[in-house]
Hints:
The structure holds two protein chains of two kinds.
Chain A: H1 2-15, H2 17-24, E1 42-47, H3 48-53, H4 60-68, E2 84-88, H5 89-92, H6 101-106, E3 109-113, H7 121-125, E4 131-133, E5 139-141, H8 151-155, E6 162-163, E7 187-188, H9 194-197, H10 204-208, E8 214-218, H11 225-232, E9 234-236, E10 248-253
Parallel strand pairs in A: 1-10
Antiparallel strand pairs in A: 1-8, 2-3, 4-5, 6-7, 9-10
Chain B: H1 10-36, H2 51-64, H3 67-75, H4 85-106, H5 115-118, H6 125-153, H7 161-184, H8 197-224, H9 230-261, H10 264-274, H11 284-307, H12 310-338, H13 352-384
Helix pairs in contact in B: 1-13, 2-4, 2-7, 2-8, 2-12, 3-4, 3-7, 4-6, 4-13, 6-7, 6-13, 7-8, 8-9, 8-12, 9-10, 9-11, 10-12, 11-12
Amino acid sequence: MLKLTLLAAAGLARRRPLFAALVSAVPTDVLKPGAALRSGRWAMVIDLRKCLESKDCHAACARACHLEHNVPDIANPRHEVKWIWREQGAHLFPDQLDEFRGAALADQPMPALCNHCDNPPCTRVCPTGATFKRPDGIVVMDPHRCIGCRFCMAACPYGSRSFNWEDPRPSLKHVNPDYPTRGKGVVEKCSFCDERLAQGRMPACVEACTCGAMAFGDLRDEQSPVVKLLRENYSIRRKPELGTQPAVYYLVSK
Amino acid sequence: MIERAFIGRGRYQLWLAGWLIPVGIGLACYLFQYSHGLGITGMGRDVIWGFYVAQFTFLVGVAASAVMVVAPFYLHDCREFARIVILGEFLAVTAVIMCVLHIFVDLGQPARVLNVLLHPSPGSVMFWDMIVLTGYLGLNLVIAWTTLDCERNATRPPRWIKPLIFLSIPWAVAIHTVTAFLYSGLPGRHLWLTAVVAPRFLATAFASGPALLVLLCLLLKKAVGFDAGKEGLRRLSFTIVYAMLANLFFIFVESFTAFYSGVPSHRHDLQYLFWGLDGHAAMVPWMWLSLLMAVASLPILLSSIRRGNQRRLALACGLVFFSTWIDKGLGFIAGGLAVSPMGTVASYAPTVPELLISLGIYAVGVLLLTLFYKIVLSVRAETESP
Lengths: 254, 386
Ligand code: SF4
Ligand code: SF4
């Protein structure tokens, strides 16, 4: 709708200068097409060596993300809403960590978030198309279309999705006016900061990470930092046996 | 024809009025849930589906089981079911309505339910489930209503009804298969990620549905003197025996694969259900009770068939019904979601409002079934009176 109005206004503006003012009145911080970051396949690389060494970041990644995206802070663990959070290694990689070197990782907290899978079961099962994969690989949610059936949560094998079991707004300590809040009864999750990418900015967690453990970039671009890191280091992904092809890689060693 | 549903003696009116009470309570609880969100239920971020979805799953089975009287009657001309077949069809209609209501109350944004039609997603099994369920509802309603109307007018059923009846037979199998696919196509939910879900669903359906039908026939006989015919009930009992045997066999083969292979993820959910996992053992007594009732029902059924003892038949059918209800209406969903994606174990117990909402839906079912059966019986009484 907004697009149509803009197009119509642009058309008119060419003929009548009076309308030109209307077009230029479009807030420039919302639509900045030239500056948007684009990618063939967005992916994230989390260097666990750096991440686990940092003792004083206090999960800066999660705090930045949740503040930016108006993710509520709900005390009841059954009703929690999380986009990115720290979870024990054993929970992230069940059956993947051995009892020797792996045991050192098993009880360490490490970042968990939506994997923006290449073959996402969550979008496959959604009966309304409220969640879908964009051509650049980001799996997004349209909370206005979601009917709250939670089929996508049953399908996601990573627990990456949260449902609003209660109205989240009373649990927001600060509201970021630049990002929408959600209501009860819909599903939400990490969006790889699609709104920031559109403005030419890196995801909030990547920017906030104090120890440079998070890299973000285009998997199809040989020059991108993520491809370089993945070529030079050994990485693991969560539950690879399920064929979902996660786009979040965890670096464990050289 | 429809006016017959509401004409009756005081006792009948009282029965209808009595069931309106749980409907009202359920509605009030639903309004509470509607304003507060699904957080008033026992569900949460790990156990994302609970009592509602479980009842839906169980009731799809009851709906599908109508085929166990429809197919023999229309395909093999099995006359013993002549008096039962329409009862089975109306039971199917009622069960589908209860299914749809259970899904509706489970939605976080019920006002947007039409998005399923506005944005059809043929890749989603839920989309197909909606199509097959509404189709099945329509088919059974049209078939039952038309055949009853013809019975009343002592005319032959129109010719177009036959193809619809034949279509309803595979359709019944389809509704439960598609419902099974809701679960068995999800990666990482290991109790569900097995091909045995669909056949086992059908087996439990073909046991529980006919068991309920037998119980209803016996109840109608006691309450209003309607005789479904001994032979019909006897045949239904055989159906129940075979379906129950198939179900037990499926439980056995699934357990073998899970435990003999030793794959932890495959084993954990069954372990949770029957032995408890990490100290979570709420389902254990229920599951063993279900299994015990399933096994015990078989000799009782067989002896009731041999002796024609209707008390024993009622007992056995009660056992079958509750056994499958526990299995599907409690264990299947709670067990499938017990081990969270993080590998932790999460227990679930429904809350009081959650149970009352579901009870309200069951009460709607009782009311609808009463009205349908009242119409059938009054038409029968008219045509059969000399
Ligand atoms: S991690 Fe889960 S929610 Fe994210 S894309 Fe994969 S399946 Fe979907
Ligand atoms: S909860 Fe929303 S996003 Fe998830 S499957 Fe249902 S409609 Fe789609």
